[in-house]
């Protein structure tokens, strides 16, 4: 259940940072940094270990280690509990302690590598597509990109614009689904239209075959407008 697993640093880099930290604290000691390939590592098999440093949140793990050691005929380790340092600058969505999970959260929005150059694509405008389910954060990310100077194209708004009287898909949709989808003022009642296509793949495809090409054309027009604005 680690947050943003894809942004966890490689083992070699984490081990190097750990060694640098330990040697800063006490360079006179010898440090063996061991990669863990299971939840316990050498803690349940090494007879020379005497102490295990835990925190309040990892104490139960230390107790599990001691249980395994006893099963393996080894003496229990002394569990030495330390306090975790608080992060005075943590945000509402981050852990209260100093945490690599919080650091990964802060990496969001950072360009990790240069955009891949595709010779088949023009150099500009550079188009980013935001997709995701309801509540996934599309609007929030779009606002952030807008603050950074991006030209925003809202596909939902374009979809609505395609349906309005005089819109590019209006006549085709009314012809395909009948006048019963219209309100008294001639606008398309999207609830009535939705009821006609909901759960009916054939009707849904009929609708998207009309609306999506028009939306794509409108998107291309807006991309051209963005390019003209620089």
Question: What do you see in this structure?
Answer:
- By secondary structure, the protein is mainly alpha-helical.
- The chain has two domains: 5-107, HUPs (Rossmann fold); 138-229, P-loop containing nucleotide triphosphate hydrolases (Rossmann fold, 3-Layer(aba) Sandwich), CATH 3.40.50.
- 43% of the residues lie in helices and 4% in strands.
- The protein has helices spanning 11-25, 59-71, 100-107, 138-147, 155-163, 170-177, 190-197, 201-229; strands spanning 51-55, 78-82.
- Strands 1-2 form a two-stranded parallel sheet.
- α2 (59-71) links the parallel β1 (51-55) and β2 (78-82).
- α5 packs across α8 (201-229).
- The relative contact order is 0.07.
- The mean pLDDT is 90.
- Keywords: ATP-binding, Nucleotide-binding.
- One of its GO terms (molecular function) is dephospho-CoA kinase activity.
- Pfam families: CoaE.
């Amino acid at each position: 259940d680690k947050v943003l697993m894809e942004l966890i640093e490689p083992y070699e880099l984490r081990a190097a940072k750990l060694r640098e930290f330990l040697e800063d604290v006490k360079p006179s000691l010898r440090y063996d940094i061991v990669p863990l390939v299971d939840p316990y590592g050498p803690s349940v098999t090494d007879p020379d270990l005497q102490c295990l440093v835990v925190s309040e949140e990892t104490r139960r793990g230390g107790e599990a280690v001691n249980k395994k050691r006893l099963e393996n005929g080894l003496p229990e380790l002394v569990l030495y509990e330390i306090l975790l340092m608080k992060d005075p600058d943590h945000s509402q969505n981050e852990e209260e302690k100093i945490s690599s999970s919080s650091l990964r959260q802060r990496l969001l929005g950072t360009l990790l590598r240069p955009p891949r150059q595709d010779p088949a694509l023009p150099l500009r405008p550079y188009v980013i597509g935001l997709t995701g389910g309801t509540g996934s954060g599309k609007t929030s990310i779009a606002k952030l990109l807008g603050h950074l100077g991006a030209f925003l194209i809202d596909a939902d708004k374009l979809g609505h614009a395609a349906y309005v009287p005089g819109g590019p898909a209006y006549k085709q949709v009314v012809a395909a689904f009948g006048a019963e989808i219209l309100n008294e003022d001639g606008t398309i009642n999207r609830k009535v239209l939705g009821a006609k296509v909901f759960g009916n793949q054939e009707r849904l495809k009929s609708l998207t075959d009309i609306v999506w090409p028009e939306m794509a054309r409108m998107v291309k027009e807006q991309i051209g407008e963005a390019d003209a604005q620089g």
